[in-house]
Amino acid sequence: MALLTPEDLEDLLNKLRQSNETIKASTGKGITEICEEVYGTRPASQKVAIVPITAGNGIIGNFSSSLLAITEYFGLEGYITDHPDITGYHQAVSDGADILLMADDHMFIAHNLKNGKIAANHICTGVIYSEIASRFIHAGSKDVMVIGLGRVGYAGAEHLVKKGFNVYAYDPNTEFMEKAIEELGVNAYDSADHKKFSMVFEATPNANTISEGMITDRCLISTPGIPCALPAELAENGDIDLVMEPLVIGAAAMLYSVF
Ligand SMILES: NC(=O)C1=CN([C@@H]2O[C@H](COP(=O)(O)OP(=O)(O)OC[C@H]3O[C@@H](n4cnc5c(N)ncnc54)[C@H](O)[C@@H]3O)[C@@H](O)[C@H]2O)C=CC1
Ligand SMILES: N[C@@H](CCCCNC(=O)[C@H]1CCC=N1)C(=O)O
Ligand SMILES: [Mg+2]
Asked: Which segments constitute the Pyrrolysine biosynthesis protein PylD N-terminal domain (predicted)?
């Protein structure tokens, strides 16, 4: 699993503000409005406990503090437990926390103890970033390009198919491609078709996965992928809207999904 680094999380709220401005400009709505529409929920100053987890690769510097900043951004009462792991979990439940946020190296979850709802980061990230891509106000069709069909990409492709978009997908992993074609009915993207997309959702751990031949001059690229999917020379093109942010948008979707 590609793990976040403390560097990824630097200047997080500024990255969110920039991303949100781009989201508003290219979809007409901001991230909180989109989350409300996708999940049909709103924050209600819930008490959120963040439990650091030492399993596997261990605690990531400023991961918990980043989640704390996210809870405050959404007007929630957030705090980090005094201890990690089971001791922290016990403290959170004893304190009467409504929602727990915690992550090991494989799963990052939000669990609402009051209504029983639980959310996984990779699903919510796929859903929210693909949703953003699909809301491009200048799109001339319902065609969306999906790059990467792993944990995040597959969830996003599934979401787009359910919403009736024409999904063209590419993943070098042929098993994942076949699964998406069979189970979701996606079209296999073929560069030989020279088809260009104004809406792209990318979820890969590789840089520069987007090439000029894939995109229209004016387009929206929505990607949680780290590092950046868009080559620097293409990013200079003023008509490409890029929504890319390492944690907050996905975590916001998790919270809205369990409110
Ligand atoms: N910004 C955020 O909030 C979050 C970001 N991430 C990031 O999203 C990325 C994807 O995460 P996962 O889905 O868990 O990874 P994964 O490893 O499950 O899936 C990645 C997929 O990308 C495919 N891929 C690699 N190079 C490709 C290329 N050039 N073109 C098309 N497909 C390609 C791989 O074959 C694989 O199927 C990672 O970089 C991860 O760090 C994950 C969760 C949240
Ligand atoms: N156990 C650590 C957190 C580990 C998080 C690993 N997961 C990722 O990096 C995923 C989540 C979003 C993007 N990648 C701690 O409690 O500090
Ligand atoms: Mg995010």
From this structure: 10-118
Q: What is the pTM of this model?
A: 0.98
Summarize pLDDT for 24-35 with one digit per residue, the tens.
Answer: 999 999 999 999
Residues, CB within 5 angstroms of ligand 3 (ion): 224, 245, 249-250
Which residue minimizes the CA distance to atom 6 of ligand 2? 105
Q: Which domain CATH number covers 46?
A: 3.40.50.12150
Domain containing 200: what range?
A: 123-244
Domain total in the chain: 2
Q: The complex's ipTM?
A: 0.99
Q: Is the CB of 172 under 6 A from ligand 1?
A: yes
For residue 103, give the nearest of 76, 66, 64 by alpha carbon: 64
CA of 180: how far to CAs of 149, 161, 177, 201, 224, in Å?
8, 10, 5, 15, 20
